[in-house]
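During the reporting period the student researcher (J.K.) took over the structure-prediction task from the postdoctoral fellow and processed the backlog of single-chain submissions. One of the processed entries is reproduced below for the supervisory committee.
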Amino acid sequence: MEGVTKMTDIKKPKINFGGTMKKYEFTGKEKVVFGTKLMQIRSLVSIEKIGVKPGEIGGWIEKETNLDHAGGAWVSGEAQVSGGARVSGEAQVSGEARVFGGARVSGEARIEKTEEYLMIGPIGSRNAILTSWKGENRVMVSTGCFLGSIDEFAKAVKDKHGETEFGKQYEDALKYISRKFKVK
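J.K. obtained the following structure tokens:
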């Protein structure tokens, strides 16, 4: 019968540990960079917002925890994500960017070169890594459970830490971030 698909022709979607459908797989292609084995990824689904199609070859990650299967986050080109770094939300890491350590690239961040983001840490009351990047219209900051603009982060630090040692650490970091990204 024309137009009828046999059940044997339908592939079951791959599911990850959290129950989310996997959006990428490893291609089998590997390379070692500074002693870290990176694996190239291939899209299993369409990520319409950025034009990724199923089967499209992506960038390089060390392990599945580096790139979230949920959302539209993607690593492309020769970009590399390793260590405890994580790309999530609608974020994109592309070009020649290298994201590593405890960096968190999230929201709608776009990182194309390593110098487009900054990691500071461990810092503050949680000894966490503070990651900042220049967004489309503002500088963004992510650390622990916080994700927001540099101005929102400055207010949150003032409200929570005031003039304590942690407040002073964050204030110094904010000055450096402002200087790096030319925030007035």
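The committee noted the following: The chain has two domains: 12-112, 115-184.
J.K. will present the remaining backlog at the next meeting.
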